Every structure is written in C-alpha cells, then in structure tokens.
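Here is this case:
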Amino acid sequence: MDLTTVAVPHTLDRLRPLLPEPPARLLEVGCGRGALAVALMELGYRVTGVDRNAEMAAAAGDRGVPVVQADIRDITPGEGYDVVLFTRSLHHADDLDEILGHAASLLTPGGLLVIEEFAWERVNQAAAHFLSDNRAMLVAVGLLDAGVPSGDPLDTWVADHADLHRGSAMIAALDRTGADFAVVHTSILWRLIAGRGGSWVESSSHTIDALTALRGAEERRVAEGALPAVGFLASVRIFGAR
C-alpha cells in the first residue's frame, strides 16, 4: 500500500516554507523509494537522493530520481548543494556530530541543513495509548497487519525505540553544527501507527481515509494540549568552510 499520497503533501506543507526557491540543489539523505524527491523535483528543485539500502535506491531510481546508493559520508565534500535534507533517517546515525558535520561540508556557504524527525522520548501515556488503540482498531477492521501490545503501551514504545537517538540529541547536534537554528513541531504519530514490522493491507482505499482522519485527530489533540507534538522539522544555516 502506497501511503505517500497522504504523507508527502503533509511533509511538503511544512518543509516548503523553509526551502530556498527552485531550482535550488537539494540532497535528500535516506530518500527511500523517492516519493518526496519526486514531489520536490516536480516543484522545480534539482534533487539527488542518497540511501544505503540497495532496494530503496533502486526503487527511487525507477521513479526517475538521480540517486546514489551510499552512506552520506561517501559523498565528496564540496558538492555545492543548497540544501541537505535528512528525512527520518538521522535517528539511525552512529555519530550525530560526524554525520551532520559531513553533511555541512556538502553545502554552499549559507546553505541549509534540515532534519525531519520524531522525538520518541516525547511520547507519554496519552500518546502511547493513541498509537496502541488506533493500531488495534485498524487491525480489527482488516486495514493493518501488525502486532498489538498486550502490556503497557508506553513500556512497549520505549523498549522498541530506546536504540534510536532522542529528538533532543538530534536537535542539540544540529544546533552545534550551524547558525540560525529554527524548529517547527509537527504531528507524526499517525505515520507511526503501523509500528515496527507492521504492514498495511494491499488494495484498501479505506486506508488512506483512515490515516487522513487519524492525522486530523492527532493535530486537534496536539492543539488542545492533550497530546505532545512528537514530530519536528529543524534547520540551521552553514556559513563558511568547515
């Protein structure tokens, strides 16, 4: 099931105000199957994707994205990108300062380093139950094939994500890397409903409608203060040589 028809417009709505005007050069780190890269290319950006996963890189290439199968540290410094964008990939990095420092070396002076991520440590009992209850509902109606935790949802969430970098650590590392730090907090729980190992049922048009409704429900609860804003977009500018 391709959920990019819901996910990509949501990302673009929040990302686009941060970006320079097309035809700026943009490197997307962790481009996956290339859905966001294609959308940015359609807006006029000159996009290159990079992904360590051979299957993902091949899928992005099949969609017409210029893509490199590599670790970002294998990309030669001085490439002169206007933007380097990490899309939900930085939380897997082994060394945040090293990765972000190398990414900064790929930018032109004044270039923008952006991360789209989630702060797993912000998930509280209310957010964990929002995830667990809605996952159980989607499994029950046959839209999702996933396990449903039998114990405390927050304990399960922490156990499943403790090996990832915290949002606070990623934000601090980004702030150390450049200047003019800015952050926007966003909804993202609706995109994490499937959990690790979960899969959406194929050929179900109702899945898109369900996720759209869940996104709206999350955003209303965040606005009311009933749920934490777990997602974020953060950026810095890089001035001078590194």
Remarks:
- Residues 80 and 108 are 5 Å apart (CA to CA).
